[in-house]
Each structure stands twice: as structure tokens, then as C-alpha cells.
Design brief:
three-stranded antiparallel β-sheet, seven-stranded mixed β-sheet, alpha+beta, elongated
């Protein structure tokens, strides 16, 4: 069974996300709501989502593979706690919300982790194509209703009496909410604009028509939220394009883009109002039929005034906020808030009117308290910051990623609209689906895009590593710095005259004074290719020792998922005066590891449930930086000790690997592949200490320790 699922994993996930897209869009288009209202459809989709989430959690172990998922797991945990705390007020809605979060976090968000890059792109694009098709249908019918000046009221699938067509100076159309659908129209416009360049002529023309129709609908919908989001999206697009291009011509395009959008908005608005005035008699007849007092001769909103410009939102927000201090930590839950609020203050505005928050941020704070607000806030903020960082990196590489630009704009639409709308997260929401789908696509596909890099095979990796080692060897000779190959590299030099066949890394060791001297020498050299990275010059760097790396290269593996790009390198270890097993160092190393695991996405794929424990520790270790612990480790290990022995001290060890204090003082040259590098004259003493007296014997297959598999890339030459 598992083999069958794995074989069809892409197809299953594609089917699920398309079903979700159809379900959400049908819920927004009133004539199609019977599909979303069907219990078999809703139940089948939910069951498939839960099964996929469970498969991803238990079999795929996606919590080890995707960045920032720990914040979502924390939010999920806090939501359960909140639900338990208010269980006496009922639990059915909270169970539904918990299942939805389960699907959001473990099905939608990690949907790209178990598929190829090409399959991931298909899932992402097909989802938006499906949304676009349904959206165009809803928009097109709605615009026809405007042309025909049709206005009426119907009951939706929830039994609510809602407006349809052109009513009260707004085009509701066949949509459940013009505010929400105008946002979807805006998202569709953004998606098509950034994709249109890759379409063939016929699809390009269709896309242009779709963009125009959606733009007209946004204007006629009267949604101020959509207008604000549209202008912000235009500004972001302009800024990013100007930043990427950086010339006068691009600046003019920026200005023209803003002018064109504003002018087009005014043209559509003016033309529509003239059309309404031309059909004055028909509109007045319709108003009498609908018993409206408005003549609809203008697109100016009739449901707001100077005294009520927010359409009651200010009153709703104030009323909701008044409840927060009474349950600030875990909140009221998404399902039971009304019953609890009614008990606390039945006369409060939102209780009497049974209003939702109409603010996504206040909603999270109200429903899930500070713990939910902070964990979800960190997730969203991390997502946004990571995309901005990627923009800067692409600029350095002279790249423009249209998917990335599209996601930044759509994310800002979601974030800004959340100031005025509710339920992005609670219940199956299209905006919620889009948010987590985009985040998953970014972390699994876009952020790892290596289109400007060439993949390296193992032989080429070793060649690059030797290039780094050549640089170190030369600068050490030039500056009179005493270094030696260390650990597996030393063993490889002595036993194999090069790399250990099943190993591919290079390590060197220096006494502390020489270690510091080499670090400064590389910094001062400022080589265009070979660089040094440490916790001192990059706070994101997770290790207490430094690395010399080839800046043209990057690598990725399942053990390290980090914002910092760690290139092919040589590890440089400092050796200090030996101390007996130091409790302080052991504790500091533990804190460092916890900080790294939580803060910087480094996960041990062999640790299993321990990774979940690390995620729970995030609340504490989010308050610290790994740099803090690395500095403490360095300070502790560098304390001068009059000892006959030296060792690398900045990690907890099961047993001592101390060597004679003078063991690194005298070095000799030794063949390594087709090069010559330095090794200790008394290498036998060191290797015997670390690997035992039989270190020259080739170990059996089961004892050949390999480093974690990684994929390395080098930047393509222009």
C-alpha cells in the first residue's frame, strides 16, 4: 500500500489541491455553492487531506524537511491547548478547526517536499489555473449582470439572505462576497501578469482579456480593501523591478505603471457611472422592486458615511479588543468564543450582534491568545523576510524570478486584506490555502532554485575542496602559519595518500594562536573566490569553528537547512590547552545545539521525536542567538591552561582525544592526491589516540562512516 502511495504521491497531491481549489471557488460563487455544501464532497476532501497529512507526518517526516514548520506545529499545539481549556463550552467547531490546521500545516504547506521540482511547479501552477478559470466564470457572469442591470436577493447555502447582481451601488454579481472575490480577482491578475511572458500567443491574449475583466470587476465591486491592496501591489512590483534593473528606463516604467493603473481605474469608474445615468429609469424601477431607497446612479458606496467610514469595523475591533485582556495567553478559541464572551459580558457589541472580528490579526489574538499570535506571526514574518533576502540574492546574481515577485505581491495582498477581513486561517479559506501553498512552494522550490548554478559530481567536489586547501596551504606558507591536516583528512593522507574513498571532506587543525592568525590573514587577503565564515562575521553561522570556502559554490542536504549558504569548504579546528571533561563546555554545547536546531533549521533526520522536543524548546531558545553560545564556547576553551596536552574542546565528547601539546608544532609534507600538504611529524601518536592502534587497517563496510549526503553546485560562468 505504501509503495502504491509513494508511486502516485505527485498525482494524489495534485488531485487534492485541485479539489481544494474547486471547493473554495464553488463556495464563493453562489450558483455553484451546492457543490461546496455537499457533505460527501466536503467530507471526502477533508478525509483525503487528513490521510495525506498523517502520511506526511509519519512516513515522509516532513517536519525534518521544510523550514519554519516548527512555528506551525507550535501554533497547532497551542490551539489544542486552547480548545481543551474551553471544552466545557462545546467542542465541535474547535475539532473542525484543529483538523483544518492539521491539513494546512501537514498537507498544504509540505505538499512540495516529496515531489520533483518540475512536479512542484505543476502543482503550484495548476492550482492557480483552476482558481483563475472559476474566477473568470464568476466575474464574467457578474459583469453581464451589470450590463443588464440585474439586481436581486437570494438565500445562500448557509441560509443567509444575500445581495446578487448590481445592488446598492455595488456589483455583487453571483458572488457571495464582493470584498473577498475582488481580492481573488486581484490575486489572479498578479498571477497572470507574472506568467504571461511564458504563454503562447493564444493563451497570452486570453490572459490579457482575463486581466482586463478582473480589473473592471474590482472597480465595480466597490471594495476599498481591494483598491488599497492593488495600489500596494503596484508599488511593490514597481520597487522590485526598479531594484532589479536599476536604471532610468526602469524608473520611468515604475512611474508609468502607477499612472496607468490609477488612470484606468478612473476611466472604468467614469464610464460605468455614465452608463448608470443613461439607464436611470431602469435602475429606478429596479429599486422600487427591491424596495431600495438608493437610485444606484453612482458607484459611490451607500453603506458608509463620514460617521461610519469603517462600516462598523471600528466598533467591532474595539469590542473584540476589550475581551483580549481577560484571556490574553491562550484566548477564547475559534469555536467557543461567543459562548464564553456572552458569559463575560453579554452586552458587548460583538456579542449582541454576533459579529466576527473583521481583522485577521485581532482574530488570531482573540481566538488563540498571545501564544498563537506570536507563533503564527513569526512564521509569516519569517516567510516574508526570507523572500526579501532571496530578492537581494537574485540581484547579486543578476536574476529576476517572476514566481518570487508574484508571491511577494500576493502575500502583501493577504496581509493587508487581513486588516479588514476575518477567517484567513479558521475554516477552509482560499486565502489561507494560498498563503500556506505559497510558503511551501517558496521554501521547497523557489528558495532552493539553482538555475544559475551547475550541479557537481563527487570528483568535481573534491577538486573544488582541493582548490580551497591549496589556498590555505599557500597563505600559511606566505604568513608563516603552522597548520596540519586533521581527523579523517590526516588519516586519508597517511593511509590512502588522499581522500578516504568513502569520505569527501577536508579538515585542518591549528593551535589557538595559529588559528587566530590564519583567520585574520584570510580576512585581510580579501580573495575574490576564497572566503572565511565564522560566528564572528556572520551571526547565522551555526558552528563554533570557522570554515574557509569557495564563494562560487553552495550545497544543500537534509541535515542543514539554513538561510546562510554554506559553500564547499575546509573545516578549521582550534586546539587549546586540555582540561578534564568540562561541565560548563558540555552545557554550552548542548545550548548551542538546541539554539541551532530551533533557530536555524538544522535538523537531525535520525533524531526522530527528539526534533519535536527541540521545537517545543523554541519558545526559550528563540530569545537567544547561536552566536551567543559560540562566543561563550570560544571564551571558555581559550582560557589559558598550563597542560601537557591539547585538544579541540568546543564540543561535548564521550571520551578524551587529547594529544601531546607539542604534537602540532613540528610538521612534515605528505602526498595528498596530486598535491602535498602538511601533517604532524608524530602523526602516529595522533591517529592512534583518535582511531586506535589499528588505524592503518581498512574497516569493514558496516564501519565505514560517511558524512550526510549533500548536493553541491557551482555558479555558472557568464
Amino acid at each position: 500500500m505504501l509503495k502504491l502511495i509513494e508511486k502516485n504521491y505527485f498525482k494524489i497531491n495534485l488531485a487534492f489541491i485541485l479539489i481544494v481549489a474547486v471547493y473554495c471557488m464553488c463556495g464563493l460563487i453562489v450558483p455553484l455553492q451546492f457543490i461546496s455544501a455537499n457533505k460527501v464532497v466536503a467530507g471526502g476532501m477533508t478525509l483525503l487531506g487528513i490521510l495525506l497529512a498523517t502520511y506526511n507526518l509519519v512516513i515522509k517526516k516532513v517536519y525534518l524537511k521544510i523550514k519554519t514548520i516548527e512555528y506551525l506545529l507550535l501554533f497547532f499545539t497551542f490551539n489544542i491547548i486552547t480548545s481543551i481549556l474551553v471544552i466545557s463550552y462545546g467542542y465541535s467547531t474547535n475539532i473542525k478547526n484543529t483538523l483544518i490546521f492539521y491539513i494546512y500545516f501537514l498537507t498544504v504547506f509540505p505538499i512540495f517536499t516529496g515531489v520533483t521540482r518540475e512536479e512542484g511547479k505543476k502543482i503550484y501552477d495548476y492550482f492557480f489555473y483552476t482558481v483563475t478559470v472559476f474566477n473568470i466564470f464568476g466575474v464574467l457572469v457578474s459583469l453581464i449582470q451589470f450590463i443588464l442591470l440585474k439586481g436581486y436577493r437570494v438565500h445562500d447555502y448557509k441560509g443567509l439572505y444575500i445581495r446578487q447582481g448590481f445592488v446598492e451601488s455595488r456589483l455583487f454579481g453571483i458572488l457571495a462576497s464582493p470584498n473577498f472575490l475582488s481580492l481573488i480577482s486581484l490575486i489572479v491578475i498578479i498571477f497572470l501578469i507574472t506568467k504571461i511572458g511564458s504563454f503562447i500567443k493564444v493563451y497570452k491574449n486570453i490572459s490579457i482579456l482575463a486581466i482586463v475583466l478582473n480589473f473592471i470587476y474590482i472597480v465595480l465591486s466597490g471594495s476599498r480593501t481591494a483598491f488599497i491592496c492593488m495600489m500596494i501591489a503596484v508599488v511593490i512590483y514597481s520597487i522590485v523591478m526598479f531594484y532589479q534593473k536599476g536604471n532610468t528606463k526602469s524608473l520611468l516604467k515604475v512611474v508609468m505603471a502607477i499612472i496607468v493603473v490609477l488612470f484606468s481605474y478612473k476611466v472604468v469608474n467614469f464610464t460605468s457611472e455614465q452608463y448608470l445615468k443613461y439607464n436611470k429609469e431602469r435602475l429606478e424601477a429596479q429599486d422600487k422592486k427591491l424596495e431600495n431607497k438608493d437610485n444606484n446612479l453612482s458607484l459611490e458606496r451607500t453603506d458608509t458615511s463620514e460617521e461610519n467610514i469603517s462600516n462598523n469595523r471600528f466598533a467591532i475591533w474595539k469590542s473584540t479588543a476589550s475581551f483580549v485582556p481577560k484571556k490574553p495567553i491562550f484566548g477564547y478559541s475559534g469555536g467557543n468564543w461567543y459562548e464564553i464572551g456572552k458569559k463575560i459580558n453579554p452586552e458587548e457589541y460583538i456579542i449582541k450582534e454576533h459579529y466576527l472580528t473583521h481583522n485577521g490579526y485581532l482574530e488570531i489574538l482573540f481566538y488563540n491568545g498571545l501564544v498563537g499570535f506570536i507563533s503564527m506571526g513569526i512564521f509569516v514574518l519569517s516567510f516574508f523576510v526570507s523572500m526579501i533576502k532571496r530578492i537581494f540574492r537574485d540581484k547579486k546574481e543578476d536574476l529576476v524570478n517572476k514566481d518570487l515577485l508574484s508571491m511577494i505581491m500576493i502575500l502583501m495582498v493577504i496581509l493587508v486584506s487581513n486588516l479588514f477581513l476575518s477567517s484567513t486561517f479558521y475554516g477552509i479559506s482560499l486565502l489561507g490555502i494560498i498563503l500556506f501553498l505559497m510558503a511551501g512552494y517558496f521554501y521547497s522550490i523557489v528558495s532552493t532554485d539553482k538555475s544559475n548554478f551547475k550541479k557537481l559530481d563527487i570528483d568535481r567536489i573534491k577538486e573544488v575542496e582541493l582548490g580551497v586547501m591549496d589556498y590555505i596551504h599557500n597563505i600559511c606558507n606566505e604568513k608563516g602559519i603552522n597548520y596540519s591536516l586533521a581527523y579523517g583528512s590526516l588519516l586519508g593522507a597517511v593511509r590512502h595518500k588522499g581522500f578516504i574513498p568513502w569520505d569527501d571532506d577536508l579538515d585542518i587543525a591549528l593551535k589557538r594562536d595559529q588559528y587566530d592568525k590564519l583567520y585574520q590573514a584570510i580576512l585581510e587577503d580579501n580573495n575574490s573566490i576564497y572566503k572565511v565564515v565564522s560566528w564572528e562575521n556572520d551571526s547565522r553561522y551555526p558552528y563554533p569553528f570557522y570554515r574557509v570556502y569557495d564563494s562560487r559554490t553552495v550545497y544543500e542536504n537534509n541535515y542543514i537547512q539554513n538561510d546562510i549558504e554554506l559553500g564547499i569548504c575546509v573545516d578549521v579546528f582550534p586546539f587549546d590547552g586540555y582540561k578534564d571533561v568540562n561541565k560548563e563546555i558540555t552545557e554550552l554545547d548542548m545550548y548551542r545545539r538546541l539554539s541551532v536546531y530551533t533557530l536555524y533549521g538544522i535538523r537531525n533526520k535520525e533524531a526522530g521525536i527528539k526534533n519535536i522536543v527541540r521545537y517545543l524548546m523554541l519558545v526559550v531558545f528563540r530569545l537567544t542567538r547561536v552566536k551567543t553560545w559560540n562566543k561563550k564556547l570560544n571564551d571558555c576553551s581559550r582560557v589559558s591552561v598550563d597542560s601537557e596536552y591539547i585538544d579541540y574542546l568546543m564540543e561535548s565528547k564521550k571520551y578524551s582525544t587529547k594529544i601531546d601539546a607539542k604534537a602540532l608544532d613540528e610538521v612534515v609534507e605528505c602526498k595528498f592526491e596530486d598535491r602535498v600538504y602538511n601533517i604532524p611529524k608524530d602523526y602516529d601518536h595522533i591517529l592512534t589516540t583518535i582511531y586506535g592502534s589499528d588505524y592503518m587497517e581498512i574497516p569493514p563496510l558496516e564501519k565505514r562512516i560517511q558524512h550526510d549526503d549533500f548536493v553541491a553546485y557551482i555558479k555558472k560562468e557568464n
